[in-house]
């Protein structure tokens, strides 16, 4: 068994039920909409967030129908956000495959994203738990707010780690936070355990995004994300922020501002990438990532089912050890 198979083993049955529900939700009697939804379905990934919903539910009780619909609601909201993000970022690829806006156009992408958002809220409502509807709605707000903070930060002359973490808490970690929290809420866990679940998800989500940011400093065609791609979009992530605040002179601070203003050439970005790697930016980011990993694992109750604890431990290790 590979690591993903081991991670999902405690919830294999529930995950099978989730996949049937997910596939059924991506169907329409409108031909063009059905075509786009079928394309999205084919691009479906490893289902890391639904697995987290199911594992976190099982940490406290048996997953139920509400767990499945909550997991589906979050996955559809996540999918919608990716479709909309590719339009905002004018991106033609998503994880090495053509994005929806590249295959069709921006108008179709925005409308399909809206359809997925509406379907997401429909499945949250099916649970009959207002707490889950509230969670999904707040997640939609946080994802949008994270994008806006990131856009506003492009004109910022400071290189703030605080703003960086604020953005990733709302953009990436919020999805993991909501996934873990929804799992606990769906099985009516105690208030204390729901808070524990949310914090566990947040730790994983932050570690996940730091790992993604590290990828940007290394060539990997599988990712569809060449070195410096974040910087081509004016984004400075944790490795760069550490070096800018601790190691960089005026030359590279000015270059960083050019990157934010979309004025840096590819050669200048490559020079900046080399500088960040040379000055220990990657090692710093890795240390922070492992710190979040350890903080997450410390939250797992020792009295919980051993197979679920092991799966959640492997889950976060997979997040920080993955190569794409």
Quick one: biggest sheet?
2 strands, antiparallel
Strand content: under 5%
Rounded to the nearest angstrom, the distance between the terminal CA atoms is 19 Å
CATH architecture: Orthogonal Bundle
Let me know the average pLDDT.
90
Please compute the radius of gyration using only Cα atoms: 20 Å
Outline: globular
How many helices does DSSP assign? 16
Helix-strand pattern: HHHHHEEHHHHHHHHHHH
Total strand count, please?
2
Which segments are poorly predicted (pLDDT under 50) over 5 or more consecutive residues? none
Share of helical residues: over 70%
In CATH's first tier, which class applies? Mainly Alpha
Supply the helix-strand structural class. mainly alpha
Cofactor: Mg(2+)
Family: Belongs to the FPP/GGPP synthase family.
Transmembrane segments: 51-72
Keywords: Magnesium, Membrane, Metal-binding, Transferase, Transmembrane, Transmembrane helix
Keywords:
globular; Farnesyl Diphosphate Synthase; single chain; 324 residues; mainly alpha; 2 strands
